[in-house]
Amino acid sequence: MPGIVGYGAFIPRNRIRSEEIARQWGKDAASIQRGLLLKEKSVPGLDEDTITISVAAGRAALARAGIDPQKVGALYIGSESHPYAVKPSGTVVLEALGMGPEIHVADFEFACKAGTEAMSVALAMVESGRAEYAMGIGADTSQGAPNDALEFSASAGGAAYIFGKAHVLVEVLETYSFTSDTPDFWRREGEFYPRHAGRFTGEPAYFHHVLSATRGILERSGLKPSDFRYAVFHMPNGKFPLAAGKQLGFTDKQLETGWVVNLMGNTYSGSSPTGLAAVLDEAHPGDLILITSFGSGAGSDSFILRATELLPERQSLAPTVRSMLDHPRKYLSYGEYAKLRRKIIVND
Amino acid sequence: MREVAVIGTGMTRFGELWDSSLRDLCVEAALGALTSAGTDTLDSIYLGNMSAGQFVAQEHLGPLMADYLGMAGVPATRVESACASGGMALRSAFLEVASGMSDLVLAAGVEKMNDGADVTGVLATASDQEVEVYYGVTFPGLYAMIARAHMEKYGTTEEDLSWVSVKAHRNGARNRKAQFRRAVSLEEVMSSSMVAEPLRLLHCSPVTDGAAAVLLCPLERAREFTDRPVKILASGAASSTLSLSHRKDPADLDAVELSGRRAYKMAGLAPSDIQVAEVHDCFAIAEICCYEALGFVEQGKGKDAARDGLTDLGGKIPVNTSGGLKSKGHPVGATGIAQAVTIVEQLRGEAGESQVEGARIGLTQNMGGSGASSVVHIFQGV
What we know:
By secondary structure, chain A is α/β, with parallel strands linked by helices. Chain A is built from 13 helices and 14 strands.
């Protein structure tokens, strides 16, 4: 059965605390934390972007897979902050990882869902036999507009997954996608910051798609929430994934390992893929795992996965998500954060 | 003037109704009223709405309503008085029936607020553009100033305000059409996020979609449609200065007092005759001021009423058994009509768990802006 043969994640070292952002804009930090359940978020360094994050995550995935990078027949990167509007991130990443030139490359976008899209298509390339191995990455360095609610959550990070048919660490048992035209969040060509429709991003967007996709995959597979050891949902803030999980019938225990947002922030296309990596860092053989992503616009991809006996020995071959969340971290002032995120107008 | 009765009511759920458009809401409420009266003809329509133009870029709501009800041809008028639009629509409908001009007149109210507009900015247009809004004030700010004035003059405290919210939610929990159906504790109210000091999140009514409608006819014909008509005994209205800064006293809602006095006079009744009331609690302080202005308590004593249970369901004068604007929701143009729906249900004995036993005389008070307009109706179960 095809599945994940290697996985890895990367979270930049810099952090900014919610209090520091709240202080800047005269907001009440306690209310923000209570409302969003966010303590801090990652901030990319001056020389970090979706490409560098993808390379770091990709390296970790290759280390865990233990395969020759030349054998990877396809590389897909999903992001909403590809450094170029025209020129794929994938070409730079493939060279950095020692892959190609006999490789199919494409960049994906669909707000925060682009990562699981890349994973879906990589899986399909392997299942169809068109590639022996295929890598799907979700990575982002998204911007939050200053003094907007999203500034507390928009962060940087990503995760990479290599799919193959042999020596599978995690089997893919089922997939399901649910998509509709729901304009909750968007960024026009040339705009620096995205825009959103306030509370419309909640029930009609996030919850409608996450719940529908998860219910769809459960029905298709005949499984119920209590069959799973772990569940991971897209994390635009701390509250939504917990509320969605609860509404679907999952317990806090099933949600807690993959719930990395309160220290990481929302890494957009990297969000649920990184939550999944955190789960894989500790999952045991036979554990059933559910992951449902969400991308504004809107849609959700859902996967049902099962860990194999091969997983435990590979977990420590690359940095774990927990190790990147807990240490080392460097805390920034708002001014340093604004400088790194290029929010300060400078002369060229 | 002829005597006028309410013969049918209709109301949508109040809340964030993502799947319902403005016209969906109008039609649902109107059909509810027509169906409950068992009729499908109308002589005239009045529709209360504050800002459909700004919320969903739709003006000219009269014909829209008639058209979508399948009644193109019927005269239809949109009435606007900010948050008192619904109450004023009711008043207009009442006058058209009382005058003998029409028999079956629908008084409806609707607001679709959740469609991407800057709600705070739109609502601010109910205050004085040149004297107030130009300087950046918003509604929570205006009512915060009213609260401050009341606190200074009468010693009202933040806790006094909070008891009003606790009562609102306790009542709203029993209202299956309410936006928020959950009781809240005093601690929750007093620790909610500050909006405009001293008003916190749970002292402020929410942003809501919804519609309500009542069908009126001459009392002499009411039994053709229902065996439980409710008579409208009185309609009293008043205006005050648009801007808070021009009022005689910011802690005194004089338009409410004047509209109440006119209604009591027309009905030949006193405040002590009122057995159940729906008042305009856009903010907790507004309810306290309305208790005083309507004569339910002495001036300055409004602060104790909710805390002491005077206005509880089982109290001397139950106020906002529906949950009020705070818990039921406040789709601006619909509120005045929704208040009437609640009182009609009470006087018909149809209020279920929220029933005030033996209520025969009820009152609605609907206010616009920071108290620049107010309209009071008094009803009697027959």
